[in-house]
């Protein structure tokens, strides 16, 4: 009943199920699997797509011949399993060259290298079928604001994205960019820290239509923000090009837990939002299994992400169909049309009408709002007793 199907568009990065459990305090706990092995693992658990950074697939120091062989093997694995590549991205954070950023580095040679690396990685992604290209600027930031002028950094960031948009247009690629905000980690402060910042930045670009966002649950939670509200902002702006699903508590380090495992109620509202608005992009699980897991448990982790999504999707349908919920929502949103003239916008006539209206402030303030009842029903649906 909760079997993942291609139409659900569930994808995982090579770096998610391929995460080896390394953390700042400890060495890997799992052996490395090859990209081909990871594609087969994803097929086994029922995923639809695989995403990658250039260097998840092709090592940074591979020769052109090695690259071609790796790509051939990877394509064969995709063909054998039916797994598709919906999204690709660039690793602009692991190599020491990016220790002070890539597009926003103070060093023009580093910025140029980052552009060249991204162009090559775009070619690789497009060759394998990607139609969304993610930019997570993990190293684009500062620890001390003595070191980098934020206006200079944003100007460099803008110029880089403009250059890359022009490259994609010039090549005639069917590819859209999705900026992924994050407030901090690995930098002390990362530029474009939230969905709202990214949306404001996009409006300043040369080709704003080509660029949207890739919000991640964990990243907004790190900043203590309501993820669903950020996603709604992006959707309303026509900018929800991609989404990174995972979970974590507010205020913690980047935990990247299994989707829905920490704040299932927030995950419910997210799934309900995506399904209600008919979001049609990838549902990408950018998460990884606990460091204590072996690969059998990694499969349980991946299956769990998809299963929880589908369970919450069913709960959302149950919520929407519940007669008492519907009645409460109708009550809460009751509208006799008296003030619908306001939605036509401002005019002198509207203004005069509004000014002439007398409001019974006390009565409006006494209005019944059965929100406790509604929230308890929501909880009981989620807890499976309704
Ligand atoms: C990295 C990061 C993620 C980004 C990935 C894309 S890599 O794991 O924590 O949130 O989506 O670069
Ligand atoms: Mn994360
Ligand atoms: Mn992510």
**Shape label:** globular
Q: What structural class do the secondary elements suggest?
A: alpha/beta
Order of SSEs: EHHEHHEHEEHEEHEHHEHEHHHHH
What ligands can be seen in this structure?
A: 5-thio-alpha-D-glucopyranose, manganese (II) ion
Q: What is the architecture of the largest domain at the second tier of CATH?
A: Alpha-Beta Barrel
**Strand line-up of the largest beta sheet:** 8-6-4-3-2-1-10-9
CATH superfamily of the largest domain, by name, is Divalent-metal-dependent TIM barrel enzymes
How many DSSP E strands?
A: 10
Oligomer: single chain
Structure description:
The protein is an alpha/beta fold and 386 residues long. It is built from 15 helices and 10 strands. It is globular, with a radius of gyration of 23 Å. The chain folds into 2 domains: 6-319, Divalent-metal-dependent TIM barrel enzymes (TIM Barrel, Alpha-Beta Barrel); 323-383. The chain starts with 9 loop residues before the first strand and ends with a helix. The structure holds 5-thio-alpha-D-glucopyranose and manganese (II) ion (2 copies). One manganese (II) ion binds next to loops.
């Amino acid at each position: 009943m909760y079997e993942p199907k291609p139409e659900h568009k569930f994808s995982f990065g090579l770096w998610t199920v391929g995460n080896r459990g390394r953390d700042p305090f400890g060495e890997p706990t799992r052996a490395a699997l090859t990209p081909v092995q990871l594609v087969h693992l994803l097929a086994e658990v029922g995923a639809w797509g695989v995403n990658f950074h250039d260097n998840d697939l092709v090592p940074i120091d591979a020769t052109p011949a090695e690259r071609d062989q790796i790509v051939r093997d990877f394509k064969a694995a995709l063909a054998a399993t039916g797994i598709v590549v919906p999204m690709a991205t660039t690793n602009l954070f692991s190599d020491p060259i990016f220790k002070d950023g890539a597009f926003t580095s103070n060093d023009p040679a580093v910025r140029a290298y980052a552009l060249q690396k991204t162009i090559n990685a775009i070619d690789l992604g497009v060759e394998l079928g990607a139609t969304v290209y993610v930019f997570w600027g993990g190293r684009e930031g500062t620890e001390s604001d003595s070191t980098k002028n934020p206006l200079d950094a944003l100007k460099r960031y803008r110029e880089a994205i403009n250059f890359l948009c022009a490259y994609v247009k010039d090549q005639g690629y069917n590819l859209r960019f999705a900026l992924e905000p994050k407030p901090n980690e690995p930098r002390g402060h990362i530029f474009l820290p939230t969905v709202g910042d990214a949306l404001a930045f996009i409006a300043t670009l040369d080709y704003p239509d080509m660029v949207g966002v890739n919000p991640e649950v964990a990243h907004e939670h790190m900043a203590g923000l309501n993820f669903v509200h950020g996603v709604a902002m992006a959707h309303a702006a026509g900018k929800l090009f991609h989404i990174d699903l995972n979970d974590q508590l507010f205020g913690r380090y980047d935990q990247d837990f299994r989707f829905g495992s920490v704040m299932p109620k927030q995950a419910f509202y997210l799934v309900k939002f995506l399904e209600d608005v008919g979001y049609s992009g990838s549902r990408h699980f950018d998460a990884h299994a606990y460091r204590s897991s072996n690969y059998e448990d990694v499969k349980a982790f991946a299956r769990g992400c998809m299963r929880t999504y589908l369970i919450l999707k069913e709960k959302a349908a149950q919520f929407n169909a519940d007669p008492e919920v519907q009645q409460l929502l109708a009550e809460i949103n009751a509208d006799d049309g008296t003030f619908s003239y306001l939605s036509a916008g401002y005019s002198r006539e509207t203004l005069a009408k509004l000014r002439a209206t007398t409001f019974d402030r006390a009565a409006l303030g006494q209005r019944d709002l059965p929100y406790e009842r509604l929230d308890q029903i929501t909880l009981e649906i989620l807890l499976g007793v309704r």
